[in-house]
Amino acid sequence: MRPVLFLICPVLLFLGASYLLPFLGIVQLSFTDPDPGLAQYGRVLTEDLPTGVIWRTLRLCVIVTAVSVSCAYVITLLWVRGSPLVRSITELCIMIPFWISVLSRAFGWLSMLSNRGLLNTWLQDLGLIDSAIQMTRNEFAVVVGMSHYLIPFAVFPLATAMRNVDERVLTAADGMGASRLRIFWQVFLPMTASGIMGATLLVFVFSIGFYVTPALLGGGQSVLVAELIYLWLFQIPQWGMAAAMSVVLMLGVGGILFILMRRYGEMAK
Amino acid sequence: MKSEAIVSNTTQIEARSVGKTFGKFHALRDVSLQISEGEFLSLLGPSGSGKTTFLTLLGGYEPVTRGRLMLEGQDMTSWSANQRGFGMVFQGYALFPHLTVAENIAFPLKVQKRSKAQVTDRVAQMVEMVGLSGHEHKKPKALSGGQQQRVALARALAYEPKVLLLDEPFSALDKNLRGQMQEELRRLHRDLGTTFVFVTHDQEEALALSSRIAIFNHGELQQIGTPDEVYERPANRFTAEFLGDINILSLDAEAGGIAGTPLELPASATAYEHVAIRPEHMRLAAAGDGNQLPARVRDRVYLGSKSRLLLETRAGEELMLYFDNGPGLPPPDRGAELNVVWDTRDSFAI
Lengths: 269, 350
Ligand SMILES: Nc1ncnc2c1ncn2[C@@H]1O[C@H](COP(=O)(O)OP(=O)(O)O)[C@@H](O)[C@H]1O
Ligand SMILES: [Mg+2]
Known about the structure:
The complex is a heterodimer of chains A (269) and B (350).
Chain A: H1 3-32, H2 39-46, H3 48-81, H4 84-95, H5 102-113, H6 118-125, H7 139-163, H8 167-175, H9 180-191, H10 193-208, H11 212-218, H12 225-235, H13 239-268
Helix pairs in contact in A: 1-13, 2-3, 2-13, 3-4, 3-7, 3-10, 5-7, 5-11, 7-10, 7-11, 8-9, 10-13, 12-13
Chain B: E1 11-22, E2 25-36, E3 40-44, H1 51-59, E4 66-71, E5 74-75, H2 81-84, E6 87-89, H3 101-111, H4 116-129, H5 145-157, E7 163-167, H6 175-192, E8 195-200, H7 203-209, E9 212-217, E10 220-225, H8 227-232, H9 237-242, E11 247-250, E12 257-258, E13 261-262, E14 274-277, E15 282-285, E16 291-302, E17 306-313, E18 318-324, E19 337-342, E20 347-349
Parallel strand pairs in B: 3-8, 3-9, 6-7, 7-8
Antiparallel strand pairs in B: 1-2, 1-4, 4-5, 9-10, 11-14, 12-13, 14-20, 15-19, 16-17, 16-19, 17-18
The complex binds adenosine-5'-diphosphate and magnesium ion (MG).
Adenosine-5'-diphosphate binds next to strand 2 and helix 1 of chain B.
Protein name (chain B): ABC transporter, ATP-binding protein
Keywords (chain B): ATP-binding, Nucleotide-binding, Transport
Domain ABC transporter (chain B): 13-243
């Protein structure tokens, strides 16, 4: 055996024991509980509740990804290409969220957006609205909360791509008389496409597995896949269904990852 | 082998006491020069001497700190790069990596809002001109260095600029390709009649291509002139040593020559401290008409058709000269004592 393989053996064993075995257990469960066969998958893919949750999850995650990557793009632009002052301020704004737990941040948004929260109170005090606007316990709150959590993760692949942009290419375009708008849309943006792709990939995969934020900010009104699995595990136990849903989720994410990665690979060429 | 394009005597561009500082650092000091229409001017100097800086000032990519830049008698100092409308080939080419060859060349034309038919025609013409037919739909990454170079040239020339600025366009190419590209650049210059301002740190390239050479060092213009002028009559020690090989001897004013040996000196020598002679102007001889200097062979390097001899004068100064390994005498051995002879007209004081 080659020495390198020999050295990574313990890691492979550890990963196998801690991830693969439990996952195989879940697969087994999905085909056997309560009845042997494909019944659980049939129910997950046809019944209204699980299919509704799957579609809502997909829709929300697409929205969250779009919002996060767009916001992150603007923030990264300020961070990488702003004046020194703008840079340090942006950097602080990117780093601070990393020091605050996801739970605190969800509660933070609750106190911001709830009916008697800061935002509604201000708007009422300013006389802009008469009665509170419902901003929590719905998809809006979930999108805000999840995007806020995910934006910093999107910043890093974008920053790498933006830093790799050859300044001279922009200078060249400028010298040819291209407007700033044209330089942005036709030169800078396409040159950072690989970063956008990477950020999209990362944020989308993270968003699918979200539990805490949608549970708190959605207030049970917009249940996502992870929440449904939790429900089937601990509140109305149907472990076979939970397992089947997990496998579907896994395959779904895997499939999407595969497609995006191939596009990403082509782009990097 | 100079470019044969007709160089008119009309001054097209003029730099008047141009200076550029980055913070406290003087990248360029007091550069004044004139560029004629249709000229092939090379900016030559070691790395960090301010060549690129001067080119970006000319192109309008950076503002000058001091001085004025004139274009055909008009003050263009405050004009943007686009207003000046020069073509520029950046170091490293600066192609748009996400666009194909054709799209790269079309970019400046589209910016100028030319009609679709015009753009297509012009792109086809440029592709043809730089010999990239068949590669129109490739992205820069799929091209070799030489081909990328051609795309950069085509893009810079697409809108028929009056002046083309090139920043070390061949520095990333291997030697064979370099020669070939130099040839093509000369052909382009001849055919187009565009003024070329060409940055290089390669003296052979500058000597072979240019109608005039401007030599830079430490941000200062050392000398500007035709290749033979700067080579044969260098203005100062830097230029003399930077271009080609040179032997430099210290003068002793009292002895009327070099310490221990009276010499016939060029007329201008009195005010200077050194006399310089190119190795190709020196011969070995038992006795001769011109200046003679006894020296001892310190080392001999065999180079095939010739040998390079390293000699030491009695005053301990080093001389270098080439000895043709043709018919006749074999090259002298190490330790041999002999005379080095040269014609006064071929020496100059610095
Ligand atoms: N944007 C800049 N900021 C600070 N220093 C610079 C900048 N551009 C060039 N310099 C400095 O100016 C000097 C001349 O640079 P450059 O014109 O690029 O030299 P060359 O092209 O002859 O190699 C160098 O010492 C370089 O470090
Ligand atoms: Mg340079």
